[in-house]
Amino acid sequence: FHVIGTMTMSNNTRAAGAAPSSQSIAFDFGGGTGDSAANNNAPPVFRFDSNNNNSNDDSADMSNNNAAPSRPSTNHNSPTETTPNEPPRKCASCGKTENDEGIKLKNCTACHLVRYCGVECQREHRPKHKKACKKRAAELRCNKPNAVIVGGGGGQLSNNNELDSDRLARMVESGDISTDRILFACPQDVDIAPGADFQSAIDEAKLIADRRMVLQQAHLRFSTLSRVSYNSGLDFERYYRDLYEDIQKYHDVWFDKLFNVDNPNPTHAEFTTGILGTLCTILRQRGDLEECAEIMKTYMAVLTRYQQQTEGCGVAAQVDCCEGLTFRANLIRCNLGVQLGDKEMAMTAFHDVVKYEKKEKAAGRYTDDSCPDLDGMLECFFGHRDYDRIDDDDIFNALTFMDKECNKDGPQLKPRECGYYNCDKKEQMSGDFNLCSKCHKQPYCGKECQVRDWKIHKLLCCGKNKTDIEDDTLLMIMELMLKNYGATADARSEIKISSRQKDAASAALLKKLMKLFTGEFSHFNSQQAVGDAGTNPAFSQALADFFAQQPGYDKVWGVLRVGYRESLERDREAVSRSNTLTLNESVIRGACEEMAKRSTLTIGNVMCDGDSSRNLSKHHLLIDALVEETKEFLREHKEYDSYAGLQKVGYNPDYMLIISKVICEVYEVEMDEEGNFTT
């Protein structure tokens, strides 16, 4: 498509008393040739005139010369009232008309060709109507819009009134429009001063329009496509980064033209602030802290311009929006300062965040369920919210503790990995990988990996997993079994297992696992108990029998499967007689870390003197003590030495008494008769 922009130039050198004249000049924003519309085979040309109401007759004729011919409306959802000359409409099955007994006929929703008075008539007539219905439905699908144009007139950056963000998001999700068929209208009004160079004015208008186009591309993803159910605002990092790099490259154009303090339209700065804030959140949650700090400089500069544009504007909605974006920026700065160890940045932003939260809560506009509540979260450490009585060092220590607990398993935002088990590629930027078009969950680095993985993924796609185990857990077990049993086969045979044989075995293994968990081994069919299946001799024997029948694995496992269960049972019996635990220490430590976290927060709520450092310095001592006591208890009570048993041990009163004593000793507190901690 060659998108033709329209620029209106006012002649400032007119005779006294003469009416102002304007002329509509068209030029190609897309780099196409000026006479492309003259070619009969040229693509359709879209024109956008930001000053249609004031155009003279010459400009109107010029605009219509290359206009695409109009097409009749194909709206099949038009009202169904009959005209005086039209015969009464009849039910296609029973022949009843709308005039009979107040009957109201309804269209066939697939083809809109026939009408029925009820569901029974529609079902009865279906065999006769089916062929014509499918044909017409296919024609209607072909008539879906092949392009949608968004953008406001007069240079404003907004969706037009007829196509709001919600409707456009629904069109994308339903497949009615592809994202690459969304076009943008960025008209630009330019006043030509007397004696000014005409070409320079055109170049400047095109430069500004190109900047708007970059912002439109990012804002479409940020405000509209992020509303699609399988997307989020974090899935479009590449477009956000393109906007940031464009601002760096054309800094003067952005800040002098689009973010100008005197600009009465602050939407450019508003949208850019939100997008750059999301980009900083992506980088911070992924652990790219230095790059986040660098982008934060531009982010805060744009926010400052937005604050200057809205200052004294008198529009309450614009002021509230500016305050909300400022609050989000301070929240990002607070978290970034904690992660970088910059106490000054973190605490300055913290006090601004808490001030805003308290103001919104007092006005009744702040809900803890939908908004961050840093004010409320820190209360658990100090027992009150009067932070003026607490030293900044203690607050910073508490924020650091919460950050480490949130990121103890690595960055919050991890790059997606290709869904094909035999591919190790990861996303370079958030949202780079495409998702399965059916379930919108499984990511792939490319078409080749998706084709290879389809035999496996089709067993889980769109909720086909009938077990009570999560899809990711099933796939992890499948990959682990393929790796372990394959390594044994490769070690004992000169012929290695090929990739084709592994792919064939993977799909069959996933089917086998689902059958085992829903059948003979249903007692492992839960997210908590599935980890114990790997230590069960009977389950391992079933898998050995399976691999004995798979090409590439059969030669080795055809021999090893004989007596495999008995061998495992003997090993398990030897472990039970010894002091060795079945559970890995990392699993026990993970459970104790969660227990210590809850205890630290509970104890902090009791200590109202503001000395949070006393709690946090002993937190890791508590974890180590809990691990040792838990391991000792599991050795004495073997019935809890399993994944499922570890979930139940917390209900054992003897165990909980031991844990309570450990907590009291480490934190130097006491427990009353009701089980509450006291200082």
Write structural notes for this entry.
It is a single chain. The longest helix is centred in the N-terminal third of the chain and has 27 residues, at about 200-225. With about 675 residues, the chain is mainly α. It has 23 helices and 11 strands. A 3-stranded mixed beta sheet has the order 2-1-3, with helices on one face.
Task: Give the topology.
Blueprint: E1 2-10, E2 22-28, E3 45-47, H1 57-65, E4 106-107, E5 115-116, H2 119-142, E6 148-150, H3 165-174, E7 182-184, H4 198-224, H5 237-249, H6 251-258, H7 267-286, H8 289-310, H9 316-340, H10 343-362, H11 374-382, H12 392-406, E8 434-435, E9 443-444, H13 447-457, H14 471-491, H15 499-518, H16 537-547, H17 554-560, H18 564-577, H19 585-606, H20 612-617, H21 619-636, H22 643-648, H23 653-667, E10 670-671, E11 677-678
Parallel strand pairs: 1-3, 6-7
Antiparallel strand pairs: 1-2, 4-5, 8-9, 10-11
Helix pairs in contact: 4-5, 4-7, 5-6, 5-7, 7-8, 7-9, 8-9, 9-10, 11-19, 13-15, 14-15, 15-16, 16-18, 19-21, 21-23
Strand tally, please?
Answer: 11
Q: How many H/I helices?
A: 23
Largest sheet: 3 strands, mixed
Radius of gyration over C-alpha positions, nearest whole angstrom: 34 Å
Overall shape: globular
Strand content: 5-15%
End-to-end distance = 74 Å
Contiguous uncertain segments of 5+ residues = 1-84, 152-162, 605-613
SSE-based structural type: mainly alpha
Mean pLDDT: 79
Name the helicity range: 40-55%
Arrangement of strands in the largest sheet: 2-1-3
